[in-house]
Amino acid sequence: MPYFKQPKHLQSLMLLQWPLSYLAMFWILQPFFIYLLFTSLWPLPVLYFVWFFLDWKTPEQGGRRSAWVRNWYAWTHIKDYFPITIQKTKDLSPEHNYLMGVHPHGLLTFGAFCNFCTEATGFSKIFPGITPHLATLSWFFKIPFVREYLMAKGVCSVSQPAIDYLLSHGTGNLVGIVVGGVGEALQSVPNTTTLILRKRKGFVRTALQHGAHLVPTFTFGETEVYDQVLFHKDSWMHKFQSCFRSIFGFYFCVFYGRGFRQGSTGLLPYSLPIVTVVGEPLPLPKIEKPSQEMVGKYHTLYMDALCKLFDQHKTQYGCSENQKLLFL
C-alpha cells in the first residue's frame, strides 16, 4: 500500500485558502483605512495608526498571541486536507528554553504553520508547558493589520532582539527558525532533501548565548505538495527572482499543484501527508561570548542529530533507504 492518499473533500479545498484569504483581507483593509481618512469616520484610522506606532515594539517583546485565533476550526480542516501531523520523539521540559531548527522550508511551510502556529495538531497537549513561536521575516510586522494576524498566531520576528527576548524571559519558550530561509524555497522540488545549513551557524551562536537547548525537526512531505519550475542561473527569470528577493525579502517562485477537479492543474497543493518529527533536544552550555570553535562544534553536533533523525524516520514517511540529507 502506498503511503500517500487521495485528495479530500471540496470543503477542505476551500478552507485551505483561508490563511491567504485572511492576509489578502488585511492588505485590502489598508487602502480602505486610508480612504476613511477622507470621510467622517477619519478618527478610526487615526486612532489605529496612533496605537500602531505606540505598539511598534510589541513584535520584538514576545508578541500578543491569541488562543482563540490559534484554535479556529479552519486550521483543523487544513490539517485534515493533507493530512498534517506532528510526532514527538522526546519530551520537552518546561524548565528550559529551546531554539528549534525547522527543516525544510518548502514553498509555503505548511507543516510548521499548522503544527506550531495553530492548535490543529494538538501541540499544547503533546508538549505541555511549552509555548511555540515560529519566526518569520521582520518586515511583515511593519505592515498594519498583517502584524496583528501573525502575532495572534504566536509568530515572532526573526530579528535578533525578538529571539533574544523570548529566550531570556521565563522558561518553556520554543522559538522555531526556518534555518534554510527563503533561499531554500528554490530547492523545494519533490523527491529532494537538500538543506541550506552548512554555513548557517547564527542560530547555534544565539542558543549558546542563552543556554537554550537546540531541537532538530524534519518535516517529511513538505517538498512534495507542489511542483516548481526551476530556472537556470543565467536565465533572465532567475535574475528576476534574485532581484525580487532583494526588494521584498523572498523569492518569486513559479509553482503549481492541483485544481479543484480531479487530475486538473492549479495552485492548490497536492493532498499528500505532511509529518513533522520533533527530535531530541541537544543541551548547550550558556556562554555569553562563544568562540568560533565552540559554535562550530555544536553546529556539527546539530547537523549529526538532524541526519540521525532523518535516517531513523525516512522509510516510514516515504523516503527510500538510500536517501540522504544534502547540506549546502
TrEMBL record:
CC terms in the record's Gene Ontology section: endoplasmic reticulum membrane
GO MF annotation: an example: long-chain-alcohol O-fatty-acyltransferase activity
Lineage: superkingdom: Eukaryota
Main localization (coarse): endoplasmic reticulum
Subcellular location: Endoplasmic reticulum membrane
CDD domains in alphabetical order: LPLAT_MGAT-like
Keywords from the named record: Acyltransferase, Endoplasmic reticulum, Lipid biosynthesis, Lipid metabolism, Membrane, Transferase, Transmembrane, Transmembrane helix
Similarity comment: family membership: Belongs to the diacylglycerol acyltransferase family.
Full protein name: Acyltransferase
Organism from which the protein derives: Panthera pardus
Organism lineage: Eukaryota, Metazoa, Chordata, Craniata, Vertebrata
